[in-house]
Amino acid sequence: MKCFGLVGLGRLTLLFVGALALSTAIHWLRMTPERRAQEIGAKKAQEAKHQQRAKVDAMVEAEMKGSDAERKIVQKAQRKDERKNWKVQRFCEDYVQNYLLKAPSTAHFGGEAFVRMPGTNVRSGSFWVDSQNSFGAIVRTHFRCSVTDYVGRFHEVKVEQVKW
Hints:
- 56% of the residues lie in helices and 26% in strands.
- The protein is of the alpha+beta class.
- A four-stranded antiparallel beta sheet has the order 1-2-3-4, with helices on one face.
């Protein structure tokens, strides 16, 4: 078996490409003009179909990117809204703990549910707190709180005790 070097392999490749080109040229020369026109038409139709498929693929990809971008924007807004709700919740709990309880060090909060009122910048919610009263007994008290948010600062805090 004969081993080809790098130069021999290049010559062999060149010989193969030349033979392929010659074969294609002979094929075209043997064809009738009608058959050539059919093959050219078929090639153009295939190219048009390929271009159409590429356009559709590009549109689908752009739409997927757009929907991903929209989904990311919505998720980011939801996370921001959740953080604001958490800040309002902490603000209300701190207010109750510092100003309304007899023994603030014994406070244990729970049952938080804060939401932003649609179309406004008011966030409201309710929660309960277990703490000691004046006699040392643990008492659960329910509160409702609403806060108006102006550019990251809380104003108009309304905290009321809910009596069942």
